[in-house]
Amino acid sequence: MTRNKWIAAAALGALLVAGQASAADKKVVAVSIPAADHGWTAGVVYHAQAAAKEINAAFPDVEVIVKTSPSATAQVSALEDLSAGRKLDALVILPQTSEELTMPVKAVKDSGAFITVVDRGLNDPAIQDLYVAGDNIAVGKNTAKFLVDKLGGKGNLVVLRGIPTVIDDERIKGFQDGIAGTDLKILDIQYANWNSDDAFKLMQDYLAKYPHIDAVWANDDDMLLGVLEAVKESGRTDIKFALGGNGMKDIVKKVIDGDAMTPVETPYPPSMIKTAIYMTVANLVGHAPVRGNVKLDAPLITKDNAAEFYFPDSPF
């Protein structure tokens, strides 16, 4: 059993025990997440709503409320609305930004709520009781190790960055560490904002500037879609691999189908929000205290294990 499956199984087991007991008061768990403004956050919304539906149906003594927000300012207002007129037993939050949400989350904490932070951290980690995130360094490093192996440790690479964030910095660090000491050379590395259209344009620029590219690392699957379209339109045959990251279902399906250019993937699953919600509820009603940091693994997704990471009904 993988570490991620063990965590989910432990949380579910605790909840099943809790479901057999009756609580004196209904526990209220607020879930505050970004709106579905791109593929990954659409996946977050999907899995958060699924967790709320499952828990609310199975446990009458727990109410999970999911609220999406299109901006940091809107998320601050959402926290105020969620807290108004009721006591929150717990808050599960994926902050739009660290700076703007830190103090509002602290206010919820000061009211007595258990705080679970997902993915993007707060400026003051002491506020959170539980932190759940993926392993961004491993996303970069495991991809790099694959390319080192398949290219024999030599070749020309181009890399696309997301936006200036800690998440992006960690992925790039992992990738650079993974190719260190080899003859793999990064010809260019620029931001494409985790956006398919921006990635398409940047990849067109790369193709115009560099006559020979062995592989592309897009850092993110939304960007990878733009890269693949640009390569397809160019008719170039020198590019052996174009890889992304995050576990988008369309890319995982390519791995399942044995796509030659995109034969592997690395997960940074939006379903981590579901893990966080289940663990939070287990802490409240399942006599399964959880504290600290949970880092979900980012193993290389190959044809052999891809089915485990494929969610065809998810928007991402």
Helices and strands, with pairings:
Layout: H1 3-19, E1 27-34, H2 39-58, E2 62-69, H3 72-83, E3 90-93, H4 98-110, E4 114-118, E5 130-134, H5 136-150, E6 154-161, H6 166-179, E7 183-191, H7 196-209, E8 215-217, H8 221-234, E9 241-243, H9 249-256, H10 272-285, E10 292-296
Parallel strand pairs: 1-2, 1-3, 3-4, 4-5, 5-10, 6-7, 6-8, 8-9
Please, could you describe this protein's structure?
It is a single chain. The protein is an alpha/beta fold. It folds into two domains: 26-134 and 270-298, Response regulator (Rossmann fold); 136-256, Rossmann fold, CATH 3.40.50.2300. 45% of the residues lie in helices and 18% in strands. It has ten helices and ten strands. It has helices at 3-19, 39-58, 72-83, 98-110, 136-150, 166-179, 196-209, 221-234, 249-256, 272-285; strands at 27-34, 62-69, 90-93, 114-118, 130-134, 154-161, 183-191, 215-217, 241-243, 292-296. The longest helix is centred in the first third of the chain and has 20 residues, at 39-58. The protein starts with a helix and ends in a 20-residue tail after the last strand. The model is unreliable at 17-24 (pLDDT under 50).
CATH superfamily name of the largest domain? Answer: Response regulator
Q: Share of helix among residues?
A: 40-55%
| Largest sheet descriptor | 6 strands, parallel
CATH C-level class of the largest domain: Alpha Beta
| Physical arrangement of strands within the biggest beta sheet | 2-1-3-4-5-10
Can you tell me the CATH architecture of the largest domain? Answer: 3-Layer(aba) Sandwich
Number of strands: 10
Strand content: 15-25%
Class from helix and strand fractions: alpha/beta
User: Shape from CA axes?
Assistant: elongated
Unreliable parts: 17-24
CATH topology of the largest domain: Rossmann fold
Radius of gyration: 21 Å
Whole-number tally of structural domains:
2
User: How far apart are the termini?
Assistant: 25 Å
The number of helices is 10
